[in-house]
Design brief:
This protein has six helices and five strands, in the order H-E-H-E-H-H-H-E-E-E-H. It is an alpha/beta fold.
């Protein structure tokens, strides 16, 4: 686990450096990662210049009320869906006024999984004002490490996806 936490710290440092260099701001909307993404970024000196807002929207009520995730999405697709992850990211982008947003929603386990979304399934969205990239990941290949590993791997992947979008963004 130490190796993954070191990677998360390195990615967070790189995100702060790249955002500072480009003069862009970010926001996070986290469910299954429970604030790990924003915690990693805000642990870096200088992060206050780049992070606008971090929302830990664990409940569907908060996803709907604060991030404007539609009831239709939650009822028809569930919180474990590409639709929910995209609406979360777009919602926090709008709320914060940031240039980029990242969101996570999924099943960290050890309970709560289903056939469609087994434990370890995580949806990650990175968006800007004009586009969004949403992906479904499966982090359930190491069940012996359980919830902590799933959350850490989802955090690492979200940071990788965010960094990739920011680095490749053309104004």
């Amino acid at each position: 686990m130490e190796e993954i936490y070191n990677k998360i710290n390195e990615l967070a440092k790189e995100i702060v450096a790249v955002c500072t260099e480009r003069g862009v701001k970010i926001a996070t909307a986290e469910s299954c990662t429970g604030g790990m993404i924003s915690a990693a970024i805000t642990s870096v000196s200088g992060s206050s210049a780049v992070i606008e807002l971090g929302v830990c929207s664990y409940s569907n009520r908060i996803k709907s009320k604060l991030l404007d995730v539609s009831r239709e999405t939650l009822d028809l697709c569930s919180e474990y869906s590409t639709h929910c992850a995209e609406e979360m990211a777009r919602g926090v982008l709008e709320l914060s006024g940031a240039d980029f947003a990242v969101s996570t929603s999924g099943v960290a386990g050890p309970t709560g999984g289903s056939e469609e979304n087994p434990v370890g399934t995580v949806y990650i969205c990175v968006c800007d004002k004009s586009s969004a990239s949403v992906k479904r990941y499966s982090f359930n290949d190491a069940p012996e490490n359980g919830r902590e590993l799933i959350r850490a791997r989802a955090t690492e992947q979200a940071l990788l996806d965010l960094l990739d979008i920011i680095k490749n963004y053309k104004h």
